[in-house]
Design brief:
287 residues; 6 helices; 5 strands; 12% strand
Amino acid sequence: MLARPAVAARTAVFVQTRNMATLKEIQTRLKSITNISKITASMKMIASTKTTRAQRAMKVARAYGKVSNDFVKQAEVEKAAEAKELLITVSSDKGLCGGIHSSLARQSRKYLAENPDAPVVVLGDKAKVQLQRAYPNNIKYSFSQLGSTIPTFDETSAIASMVLNDKEIVFDNAKLLYNRFVSAIAFETDSIECFPIEQIVEAPNFKAYEYQDEVLENLNEFLLANSLHWALVEGHAAEMAAKRSAMENATKNAGDIINRLTLQYNRGRQAVITNELIDIITGASAL
């Protein structure tokens, strides 16, 4: 008769200890996920501010870039048959922005699978890491420290000068792969065709003008730098918008986990209180 309350008491102590350990684990997880949600919410606010600034810069860069494209179209520049093309992948160094870099790297790998001998210039470490695994010998130049702030025309001019002045990189025209900003929640991987000045000079609608050699050299560098600037700035705006969406989703998911853990914690705490009441009632009955 006296053994039963002792066994029941030991069982109750074991259940209570187990529940307390579980409650401590849940409480620790709640604390860590709450801290993470605060970080993601802050990053979302920062990304929202940067997205607004990036959109303003994108509108200006897009206007200048479209002028360059219209100039090439009105000159009726045609792509040469069997032209050797240079691929320029415009990415950045920053992550935590969804699959924006993976989409760009995937399109680049698809292009290189069709053109295995094409030289590649990579802007940004994110695309470089993915392309270097499959096509390490194709990468001729890679530029880092891009994407932390809005790209400037001085940066793109320096990149264009370095590419054009390198005699080892031989190409007939260049293809820029970048992320085009569609909306605050959407982007598309797009391309910009860049033609060298030799092909522009031979265009039917360009032969009617008189020009100087120095002007042509400057025009050649300006057209590539202008297209690069357009691609970089628009890609930066798409990245900031993707980062804002990613942080918003992360904050929402963290809130859902916090709600589930809070419910689980409350149920566990209620079970502990119920077990303690049962122990008290059982002990009183035994006496």
